[in-house]
Automatic annotation (TrEMBL):
GO cellular component, one term: oxoglutarate dehydrogenase complex
Major enzyme class: oxidoreductase
UniProt-listed Pfam families: 2-oxogl_dehyd_N, E1_dh, OxoGdeHyase_C, Transket_pyr
Function according to Swiss-Prot or TrEMBL: E1 component of the 2-oxoglutarate dehydrogenase (OGDH) complex which catalyzes the decarboxylation of 2-oxoglutarate, the first step in the conversion of 2-oxoglutarate to succinyl-CoA and CO(2).
Residue ranges of every copy of the Transketolase-like pyrimidine-binding domain listed in the record: 592-786
Gene Ontology MF terms: oxoglutarate dehydrogenase (succinyl-transferring) activity; thiamine pyrophosphate binding
Protein family membership: Belongs to the alpha-ketoglutarate dehydrogenase family.
E.C. code: 1.2.4.2
InterPro entries: 2-oxogl_dehyd_N, 2oxoglutarate_DH_E1, DH_E1, KGD_C_sf, ODO-1/KGD_C, THDP-binding, Transketolase-like_Pyr-bd
Species classification: Bacteria, Pseudomonadati, Pseudomonadota, Candidatius Mariprofundia, Mariprofundales
UniProt protein name: oxoglutarate dehydrogenase (succinyl-transferring)
Species whose genome carries this gene: Mariprofundus ferrooxydans PV-1
Cofactors named for this entry: thiamine diphosphate
């Protein structure tokens, strides 16, 4: 890899520790042939000559003087007689190759950058020379004979570490993993060539990959396809991965990748029919659908079954939007859900495979977040195999502008993952790297990365002109033979193929594709249908309202089972008090609070055989000290999850996870989990509602649009604490306006429950209903302890979630104004109304904002036909909250003589103020206006 200008300037200073014998040798080489040295050393010796004129000895003496402080005493000792270190110097060299060998491996098909100077890999660095090559040295733990000639040691090291696979693994701190990789690579050096059948098979995969792209390029001119050309070795790699994984017990592989090469993978790995792909290019199959917008062909997913020596492996390629790496956590979550369903505790039956681009892998933060999930208990999937298709360019950006690291894969070192760099022009080396990766993953159950160093033959898309910004690179690419040609020539030279045989294979495949394209009665592509397999029996449309009530007897039994812990468990006094209070609530002794309602919703679902998973930052205890789903023994520190005491059956689970401080990766993970397992209630909890902003790409591209684009359903719940309490801009608003703006085509639900009973029924309905839609919940904060909001026990034993809660106290005939609101502000209005003795203003709560409850609100308003003033009241500023959405919705339901007004805070750039005093002043103005005598000053 090329070095920066500053690194080149400092290079000689770094190398003076190489020792006098090494510098002597370099100087002699410079005198004989200056061009034979690396540029840095040539420039250094030339600068010395310029300083000293033609007087070489002083210049050399100056060099040695400058070098002397850095040279070790051992390097200045006599070489053999009396040199106790001499026998060990080969082992220093072995270590150097293991650490630095990848820098000198044959990795770049284009040879774009000179290899760096690495003195540690030179004989002279250790006081050795060619004269020592036939001397026998101890080889330490190098695989093979313990003592052997230095020449043999070097040959073995170069085959192991400097061939077409360049490994990085010395950063791994775990000795077992490090030695496993080391041993595997060093044994690989003695591996015989692949047998002829295997080589012909690999050639066939390469040929199919390249000819497929060439066919599309000539038959569908000017259409984007994000070609794999230059990286065709990905196809035999994935083929080898699937076959090896299947032979080792894997039954499902969940694959995630962005758009480059996706069509090739669909055709040549997933088995999608050529007829369907060609029809998509022609656009002739498209039918107007009643629902959904669809997506471009290179974002689409697919599923198929592939035979392997170990049995059939089910492949699933995830649907992926243009935000390249956002598929990464989604795949991980899908894998975890499938492992849970299978009871795959060894995590061998379901495997995740992710194909990345080089610029995206280095540049997008969701990659680092997802890597950090890999070893966490609530997210571990037993290791993922990452393949980076390294085109050595990002759109038009060169690597030195795209990252600050040597390799695009250096980010994987944060989890100590081994990295295998491999030359994309050597398909056999690529397949060997995959074999190592599968065995490593199945041995250690951790991530491994393959850096497939290749190139991009065309621009970012096939209509681009890449030579405009990379003239030298694309001149080299234009002159460079294709992967197919390189491997074909290699096999012909080895006698594995004949030119005629290879040509015949190519012609046969081209004829096959041409016949498919010219077929007149080509079958139409299959219509996307998500309601198959695990999703059979679920609905994407309609209104399914199951009975969500639970008998008082069952609730009483569950509350005791969950909240009565073993006598020896030392519960914190505050938590013990909360637990005892919950038992009283379910006995009808006091009103039921939010924490108890939530706990009983989970307990009843799990007891009935349900599956509940909740994750988020501090979800075990709960940010607001209300949940306590995980409790800790105050003497031993051991944790316990009491809700697991009601698990009933093999698929009955309660899972609560304290996630790392990540929103985007964790929300993406939970979305993937929910899509893979419709029979689970999956909840992601933001610590504060606005924290979901960091995961906006998951919300925009998957949660809101996944059904419209790909017919993928999800029942994921977003729990977003919301409410204005004078805690500043970042701890007030969950930005409900953004979710409402994303609502269309009945794609999701947006709710703001105002009572614990509503929460209870909402969660039970979300799992018991056959309809699956994401649920965006504006959740309480201060309401958690607002006694006015608590529910009676009988509200849990019957009924279901109510989208609208009508006024219960004010007489309709005496009403002069109706206030409509949602969530917490209702209790501020109620308290102020009671305090002021007002009896002619009714308050109606809208608990479900989308889908808008037209019939329920119409029914609630029907009692107030004589009322002329209907006001929407919200805590949020005018340009935020629900007002801009509710305005048109409410107007559609009003009588001609009725007007709708709005009471809000003034429009603002930030969601809320940072002063509690100012917050209270604003709230007072809001209440005065809503409950005042006149509508003057209200928004119309």
């Amino acid at each position: 890899m090329s070095r920066s200008e500053s690194e080149q300037t400092a290079l000689p200073d770094e190398l003076f520790a190489a020792g006098s014998s090494y510098l002597e040798q370099l100087l002699d080489q410079y005198r004989q042939d200056p061009g034979s040295l690396p540029a840095e050393w040539g420039a250094y010796f030339a600068s010395l000559a310029e300083e000293q004129g033609d007087d070489a000895p002083p210049a050399h003496q100056q060099m040695l003087t400058r070098m002397a402080p850095a040279a070790s005493a051992a390097q200045q000792q006599p070489l053999r007689e009396g040199d106790v270190e001499y026998p060990s110097r080969a082992m220093y060299l072995i270590h150097a190759y293991r650490v630095h060998g990848h820098l000198h491996a044959n990795l770049d098909p284009l040879h774009l950058n000179p290899r760096p100077v690495t003195p540690e890999m030179e004989l002279a660095y250790y006081g050795l020379s060619e004269a020592d090559l036939d001397q026998v040295f101890p080889a330490g733990d190098l695989i093979g004979e313990r003592n052997r000639p230095l020449r043999d040691i070097l040959s073995h090291l170069k085959k192991s570490y400097c061939g077409c696979i360049g490994p990085e693994f010395r950063h791994i701190t775990d000795s077992a993993r490090k030695h496993w990789i080391q041993s595997r690579l060093e044994r690989n050096a003695f591996r015989p060539d692949e047998d002829d059948d295997t080589r012909r098979h690999i050639f066939g995969r390469i040929m199919h990959a390249e000819e497929f792209e060439r066919f599309l390029h000539t038959r569908y001119v000017g259409q984007k396809r994000f070609s794999l050309e230059g990286g065709e070795s990905l196809i035999p790699m994935l083929d080898a991965l699937i076959q090896n994984a299947g032979s080792n017990g894997t039954r499902e592989i969940i694959l995630g990748m962005a758009h480059r090469g996706r069509l090739n993978v669909l055709a040549n790995i997933m088995g999608k029919s050529l007829a369907e792909i060609f029809t998509e290019f022609e656009g002739s199959q498209l039918k107007e659908e009643a629902h959904g917008q669809g997506d471009v062909k290179y974002h689409m997913g697919f599923s198929s079954d592939v035979r392997t020596p170990g049995g059939v492996v089910h492949l699933s390629l995830g649907f992926n939007p243009s935000h390249l790496e956002i598929i990464t956590p989604v795949v991980l979550g899908s894998v975890r859900a499938r492992q849970c369903r299978r009871g795959d505790k060894a995590r061998r039956e379901v495997m995740g495979v992710l194909v990345h681009g080089d610029a995206a892998f280095a540049g997008q933060g969701v990659v680092a977040e997802s890597l950090e999930l890999s070893k966490l208990n609530g997210f571990r999937i037993g290791g993922t195999i990452h393949i980076v298709v390294n085109n050595q360019i990002g759109f038009t950006v060169n690597p030195h502008d795209a990252r600050s690291t040597t390799y695009c894969t250096d980010i994987a070192k944060i989890i100590h993952a081994p990295i295998l760099h491999v030359n994309g022009d050597d398909p056999e080396a690529c397949c060997q790297a995959v074999e190592i990766a599968v065995d490593y993953r199945n041995t250690f159950h951790e991530d491994i990365v393959i850096d497939l160093i290749c190139y991009r033959r065309h621009g970012h898309n096939e209509t681009d002109s890449p030579e405009v910004t990379q003239p030298l690179m694309y001149r080299r690419i234009a002159e460079h033979p294709t992967v197919e040609q390189v491997y074909r020539d290699r096999l012909i030279a080895a006698g594995v193929l004949t030119a005629e045989g290879a040509d015949a294979m190519v012609e046969a495949y081209r004829d096959c594709m041409d016949k498919v394209r010219r077929a007149k009665n080509r079958p139409a592509p299959n219509v996307l249908n998500s309601l198959q397999g695990r999703w059979e029996g679920f609905l994407s449309e309609g209104m399914d309202e199951p009975d969500t009530g639970v008998s008082a007897d069952l609730l009483g039994m569950l509350v005791r089972k969950v909240h009565r812990l073993p006598a020896e468990f030392s519960l914190h006094p505050r938590v013990e008090k909360i637990y005892e209070a919950r038992i009283g609530m379910m006995d009808g002794l006091e009103a039921v609070d939010w924490g108890c309602a939530e706990s009983m919703a989970y307990a009843s679902l799990v007891y009935e055989g349900g599956w509940v998973r909740i994750s988020g930052e501090d979800s075990g205890r709960g940010t607001f000290f209300h949940r306590h789903a995980v409790v800790y023994d105050q003497q031993t520190g051991k944790s316990m999850i009491p809700l697991r005491q009601v698990e009933n059956g093999t698929l009955s689970h309660f899972i609560v996870v304290d996630s790392m401080l990540s929103e985007m990766a964790v929300l993406g993970y939970e979305y993937g989990y929910s899509v893979a397992e419709p029979r689970a209630l999956v909840i992601w909890e933001a610590q504060y509602g606005d924290f979901a902003n960091v995961a906006q790409v998951v919300i925009d591209q998957f949660i809101a649009a996944g059904e419209s684009k790909w017919k993928r359903l999800s029942g994921l719940v977003l729990w977003l604490p919301h409410g204005y309490e004078g805690q500043g801009a970042e701890h007030s608003s969950a930005r409900m306006e953004r979710y409402l703006q994303l609502c269309a085509e009945n794609n999701m639900q947006v709710v703001y429950p105002s009572t614990p009973a509503q929460l209870f029924h909402l969660f039970r309905r979300q799992l018991l209903s056959k309809v699956r839609k994401p649920l965006i919940m504006m959740a309480p904060k201060s309401m958690l302890r607002q006694k006015l909001s608590f529910s009676s026990l009988d509200e849990f034993t019957a009924g279901t979630f109510q989208p609208v809660l009508p006024e219960q106290e004010i007489v309709p005939a005496a009403t002069r104004r109706v206030l409509l609101c949602t969530g917490k502000v209702y209790y501020d209005l109620l308290a102020a109304r009671n305090e002021r003795g007002i009896s002619d203003i009714a308050i109606i709560r809208i608990e479900r904002l989308y889908p808008f409850p037209v019939n329920q609100l119409r029914s609630a308003l029907a009692q107030y036909e004589g009322v002329r003033e209907v006001c929407w009241v919200q805590e949020e500023p005018e340009n935020q909250g629900a007002w801009l959405y509710m305005n048109n919705q409410i107007r559609k339901l009003l009588l001609t003589e009725q007007k709708v007004y709005a009471v809000t805070r003034p429009e603002a750039a930030a969601p809320a103020v940072g002063s509690i005093k100012r917050h209270q002043m604003e709230l007072s103005v809001l209440l005065d206006q809503a409950l005042g005598k006149s509508v003057e000053g209200m928004l119309v």
